[in-house]
Amino acid sequence: MITGFLLSGFDRRARWTVAVLAALALLVPASNLLLPEDSLLHVSTYQLTLFGKYLTYALLALSVDLVWGYCGILSLGHGAFFALGGYAMGMYLMRQIGARGVYADPLLPDFMVFLSWKELPWFWHGFDMAWFALLMVMLVPGILAFVIGWFAFRSRVTGVYLSIITQAMTYALLLAFFRNDMGFGGNNGLTDFKDILGLPIQAPATRAALFAASALTLAFAYVIASAVTASKLGKVLVAVRDAESRTRFIGYRVERYKLFVWTLSAVMAGMAGALYVPQVGIINPSEFDPSASIEAVIWVAVGGRGTLVGALVGAVVVNFGKTWFTGALPEVWLFALGGLFVGVTLFLPRGIVGLFARLRRGDAGGRTAGIPAGEAAP
Question: 205, 248, 292, 329: which has the highest count of C-beta atoms within 10 A?
């Protein structure tokens, strides 16, 4: 039954996307590990890690597109779910350090020893086990999203008010995680990781495995999102996006549909954060910054809202541009990002993917071509 559900959304676009991601999961690590450094096709460890980070951002963008593109929920707080998944993974990695830390305490992380903590907080117990950490990566963001969604959707909070609530949530978590007495490293966060699943985290083979895991997880998440949007559930979500009051009037319990996709999206964002942390080597409260959540929305808008694959394209394209601009013209980056968002909103309402779709159909006119129903200007 589950297999049939997943295959229901496995259309041509999904097959191509999964095939590309599977090829990347195989070829890029092989290029890094097997080809000599002087080879034209060799991918350096730095590039491998950078591309792996792009894939985690793509997974975050996919989770945003699932709720915004198909359900009309503009979340400005998905960075919170991303960061919570990252902290859950960071706590596991910190527990793996053991006595190899600066203070050589076999139980307490270095920052706890520095702050004169006497015992490990209760919420750190269990994170020495990988299965528990992976469970928390999904449960913590999922439970938070469920609680917030339960109250918000039952109260029929929609539109800009819901967006403000999500932004307030991530800002509140930002302030909380900055506090040293929270037990998460305060301003410095969690870093200095040594091992993951018993393997040295800095080893080239481990880096290659993390990249492959990111690509395959993104492919699996894409299949799930594609199946959801292609099912009857997905049709109801689109109806909620386009005419929520009408959908409720004909008998659908709209809040249940919104709560499901909202929670699923948060779990995906948490998985993205968990894959992000071991590749960049740090997680700190800056990941809760509301601007990070806004950037994720921009990725989706640039790639193409309501297309799934557009979220992946937008995340990679924008972050590649960010990498180039911050290296070559760091003072220009924010202006370029703002201009990109304004330009896409005005001239490419369906983003890069929508533009290519119009060109393929030979439809060069009409700014509103391909816009979800209910969004085109009269």
Answer: 292
